[in-house]
Amino acid sequence: MATMSGGISMPRKKNPLMMNIDKNFVPASIDEGDEYFPNGIFVFNITKMLKFINENTSDIECGTISVEKYRRELSNINESYLDSVDLTSPVILAEICPGMYNLIDGHHRIEKAYRMGLESIPAYKLKARQHIQFLTSIETYRSYVEYWNSKIADGHKPF
Predict the structure, then answer these.
(1) Which of 1, 43, 122, 148 is least enclosed, having the fewest CB within 10 Å?
(2) DSSP alpha helices (H): ranges in 43-100?
């Protein structure tokens, strides 16, 4: 409650970026052969996410991103796989907190682009409400919603 002059309490308006826990949330299963990506405690089913992107391309933001910004020194780059990587296939970024995106698919593409001296690479940018359905457990879903809401409560502003 916010207190106005005169001591009148008014309910605070809820921030529209805040998320509510969906009691009916069903995590994305990881079926045999599915690719998944752990981003800290958040594990995403990449195979199901790619299917969603392909079926909803008009609703997904696609553009280019800076290779330098998203490249990290990775010790687990499979060098023999690197040559076969298709740089025309967009990488996937997921909005982890308002306006902040993490690379969750395409580390080899970023590395290959870096080694080739490319400045940018195509990318899909999924908003939180688009990618949350691909979390693989109820626990990580709840943790994600709590994390997201804590960032908003702390005053994090979208970029």
Answers:
(1) 1
(2) 46-55, 67-70, 79-82
Residue 104 DSSP SS3? strand
Give the containing element (helix H, strand E) for 94.
Answer: strand 91-97
DSSP 3-state assignment of 69?
Answer: helix
**pTM, entire model:** 0.84
How many DSSP H helices and E strands does the chain contain? 6, 8
Of 41, 20, 22, give the one whose Cα is nearest residue 149: 20
| Angle CA 95–123–62, to nearest 5 | 85
The CA-atom distances, in angstroms, between 141 and each of 16, 92, 93 are 19, 19, 18
Domains and CATH numbers, the chain: 39-153 (3.90.1530)
Beta strands 36-39; 42-45: pairing state: antiparallel
